[in-house]
Structure formats: structure tokens, C-alpha cells
Write a structure and sequence with these properties.
By secondary structure, this protein is α+β, with helices and mostly antiparallel strands. It has two domains: about 120 residues, Diaminopimelate Epimerase, Chain A, domain 1; about 130 residues, Roll (Diaminopimelate Epimerase, Chain A, domain 1), CATH 3.10.310. The protein is built from four helices and 19 strands. The chain has a 17-stranded mixed β-sheet that branches. It is globular. The chain starts with 6 loop residues before the first strand and ends in a 7-residue tail after the last strand.
Length: about 270
């Protein structure tokens, strides 16, 4: 599906919502201030992330992502599924940041194949080296997290009682801690079974979100690596459940829905 100039599509993955613009035929200039204005829920269109689809020399398409604060970021699993669903191809390769992701359409869901996770301190990155599988740091009740890069950087805390964690106040503090020079996505996970996790995510540049695909991926891979769960893992977020599969060898995979909301038109210059 191609969109004409000035057209956009609103979509969501488990409540994590996006404004998607097809810029393959006509480039769209997207400075930080414009992305932030479009994402504003009171004076703009409103979304967690703004997505541009562009031509790629490395894959079928290129996807660029701006968080609601106007900052451009490397990856978004829910948005990637939505883009794949929008383009309606059985299989498609998508350039996202430095990575090439492969999306496969199922009867109801989209499955994404991701590159192997990176747990080294330089990949997060951290301000100084430490054990990323049990970091010797704490913020209030949150301690000894796992840090992992799955195309974008995440920190994962495992807790006994997810409901007791004040993530709305701790999230921005952790996101902007000097330990993370490029800021960080904050995940708080409760293991609920041998292959199940309940998860809350404070998303870098967007805040609390109903769902975060890369957060679900990062949390499941961190739990598998530290032997807290076994694959496949059902990750339940406020917006719904994603399925993560990884055996430690082949590419990790996320499976979940992508939902069309509406198509609209806008004058992008009107947003600054």
C-alpha cells in the first residue's frame, strides 16, 4: 500500500500507536520540532512514535522512527510489525537503524526476525564497563538489572511484585542517569511462570507505554539468558501479549498483531 503526498496512516501494536508516512516517492523533511508537534496528542495528530518509510539500498524499505519527544531512535518492534502489515507483502526486509529485520505475515499476526542481542557494555552503551547480566547498581527498590541492546538499548529489572514498582517516577530518573550516555529504555518484569512474563516499560523519549516490542524482546532474552524462563516466552503488557522465541542460536523472533486505525491527510509544513 502506497500513500500519496500528505497522507498518513494511524496504526497501533497492542496500543503502542504510530503515525506512518510513506516517503518513498516524495521525501518528507522531519526536524525534531516537527516530529514532536505531529506526535502531540492535543495540538497534533498524536502518537507514541512517528514513522517514515523511505527507500533503502540494503533492504526492501527503510524505516525511520521519532519518539514523541522529537528524538530519532533506532528501533521499534511494534512499529515494524505495523509497517510490514501496511505494505501487505508475505515477506519483507526492513532497514531499521543499523539492522536489517525480516517480517513474515501470518493469518492474524506478524513475526519479526531480529539480529542476535548484544550484552556487552559498549553496545548499550554504558559510561563504564560492568557485568551487564547483573549490574551492581540500584534505583530505589530496583536493583541488579540486565542491560541488552536489541537494536536499541534496554535495561531490565526482575521484581517479585510488578504492581508495587513506581515506574512513572523511577522511569525518567533511570532513563536519564549519566550511566547511560544515550539514555535507556527501562523495563520492569515479573516472572509469572516457566515461560511467561508480565512487563511494564518506560520508553526512552516516550514515557510509560501500553506496549513496547523491543522491550518485550529485551526482557524475554534477558530472562532466557539468565535462566529465569525458557523459550517460547509469552510477554504480557498492559496492551496485550507478544510471543518471543529464541534458542540462543538462530535469530530471536517477536510475534504479535498490527492494527489499522484510520487514514488521514495533513500539511506537514503546518507543524513547523
Amino acid at each position: 500500500m502506497a500513500l500519496a503526498m500528505g497522507e498518513f496512516v494511524k496504526m497501533h501494536g497492542l496500543g503502542n500507536d504510530f503515525v506512518i508516512i510513506d516517503a518513498r516517492d516524495a521525501p518528507v523533511d522531519m526536524p525534531r520540532t516537527r516530529a514532536r508537534a505531529i506526535a502531540d496528542r492535543h495540538m497534533g495528530i498524536g502518537c507514541d512514535q512517528l514513522i517514515l518509510i523511505e527507500p533503502s539500498t540494503r533492504a526492501d524499505i527503510k524505516m525511520r522512527i521519532w519518539n514523541s519527544d522529537g528524538g530519532e531512535v533506532e528501533a521499534c518492534g511494534n512499529a515494524t510489525r505495523c509497517v510490514a502489515a501496511l505494505l501487505s507483502q508475505p515477506s519483507i526486509s526492513i532497514e531499521s537503524g543499523d539492522d536489517i529485520l525480516t517480517a513474515e505475515r501470518g493469518d492474524a499476526d506478524i513475526t519479526l526476525a531480529y539480529p542476535a542481542p548484544r550484552f556487552d557494555a559498549d553496545a548499550i552503551p554504558l559510561a563504564y564497563a560492568m557485568d551487564t547480566l547483573a549490574m551492581p547498581v540500584a534505583w530505589g527498590p530496583l536493583q541488579a538489572p540486565v542491560a541488552v541492546n536489541v537494536g536499541n538499548p534496554h535495561i531490565v529489572f526482575f521484581v517479585e511484585d510488578l504492581a508495587a514498582v513506581p515506574l512513572a517516577s523511577l522511569g525518567p530518573e533511570i532513563e536519564n542517569d549519566p550511566l547511560f550516555p544515550e539514555r535507556i529504555n527501562v523495563n520492569v518484569a515479573e516472572i509469572t511462570g516457566p515461560s511467561s512474563i508480565d512487563l511494564l516499560v518506560w520508553e526512552r523519549g516516550a514515557g510509560l507505554t501500553r506496549a513496547c516490542g523491543t522491550g518485550a524482546l529485551a526482557s524475554a532474552l534477558a530472562a532466557i539468558t539468565t535462566r529465569r524462563v525458557t523459550s517460547p516466552v509469552a510477554v504480557s503488557l498492559p496492551g496485550g501479549t507478544l510471543r518471543i522465541t529464541w534458542d540462543g542460536q538462530v535469530a530471536p523472533m517477536i510475534t504479535g498483531p498490527a492494527t489499522f486505525v484510520y487514514r488521514g491527510e495533513a500539511d506537514w509544513a503546518a507543524f513547523g
